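Structure (tokenized):
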């Protein structure tokens, strides 16, 4: 606990993963979220949790964090389920680095239209 923030962390090769919560949060729940995230990333990246691999697969990392919680509410506690949810979403989308400019603009336009319709 540091300045009314509870932090749990895990070291994997050359990366440190942190999950932070308010001072009144349960440390076991935070640890469960951290374990779920690292298990899912380990499964998605075939055990290579180093800085270079994480930066090359930043889309997996961000999707996993997004699927893990919503406004501080833990949505998933099983790393296998989280990895399956993330891999399902990434199969349908072509990575931005592999898209042509026209495809990227079209995808951005579709996502903006979808967000405006909600």
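Design, position by position:
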């Amino acid at each position: 606990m540091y300045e009314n923030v509870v932090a749990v962390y895990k070291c994997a090769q050359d990366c440190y993963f942190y999950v932070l919560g308010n001072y009144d949060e349960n440390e076991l729940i935070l640890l469960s979220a951290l374990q779920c995230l690292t298990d899912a990333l380990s499964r998605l990246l075939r055990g290579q949790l180093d800085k270079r691999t994480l930066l090359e697969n930043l889309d997996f990392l961000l999707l996993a964090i997004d699927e893990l919680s919503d406004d501080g509410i833990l949505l998933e506690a099983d790393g296998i389920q989280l990895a399956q949810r993330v891999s399902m979403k990434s199969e349908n989308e072509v990575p931005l680095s592999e898209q042509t400019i026209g495809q990227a603009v079209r995808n951005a336009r579709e996502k903006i239209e979808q967000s405006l319709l909600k």
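Reviewer-requested clarification: The chain has one domain: 5-93. The mean pLDDT is 85.
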